[in-house]
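Here is the promised in-class demo. Please do not try to memorize the tokens; focus on the logic of going from shape to residues.
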């Protein structure tokens, strides 16, 4: 390691710097390699774009969320109003009043939910009031509460583990 100092040949002061390794004349030091790229989880890829709001697994959010698309991986309490898609990832805990076009639940949801389409995945847990034109539940999903499915003009159709009834 060396400390460079002293005047330049024209009398101006030289800049100070520390060199971690001596640099040979005429050679440039090697560039630092770029950090490795990080792969997003698959659930993020489906919903991520510039208009997506993400609440990560370590976040605890309380309030109102408005926007187009959102993904909740942590805790959320309050109100969610979206014009697009809401994804509640595995491990999420949401206690809210939700309005969205499409909702996919793989975590825990408690509250009121209004959507055109609701899918509750294998590890999804729902406790509350549901109003959805279309409801799909995978085997292993739990739903406790009241459900108003369909558009009110025709019999409701529900899908359970890929089987359609109604």
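The designed amino acids, position by position:
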């Amino acid at each position: 390691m060396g400390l460079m100092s002293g005047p330049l040949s024209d009398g101006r002061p030289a800049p100070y710097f520390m060199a971690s390794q001596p640099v040979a004349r005429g050679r440039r030091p090697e560039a630092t390699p770029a950090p490795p790229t990080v792969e997003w989880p698959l659930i993020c890829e489906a919903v991520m774009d510039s208009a997506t709001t993400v609440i990560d697994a370590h976040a605890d959010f309380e309030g109102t969320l408005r926007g187009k698309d959102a993904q909740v991986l942590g805790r959320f309490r309050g109100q969610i109003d979206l014009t697009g898609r809401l994804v509640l990832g595995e491990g999420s805990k949401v206690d809210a009043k939700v309005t969205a076009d499409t909702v996919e639940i793989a975590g825990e949801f408690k509250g009121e939910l209004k959507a055109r389409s609701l899918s509750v995945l294998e590890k999804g847990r729902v406790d509350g009031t549901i109003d959805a034109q279309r409801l799909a539940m995978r085997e292993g999903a739990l739903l406790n509460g009241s459900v108003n499915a369909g558009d009110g003009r025709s019999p409701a159709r529900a899908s359970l583990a890929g089987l359609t009834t109604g």
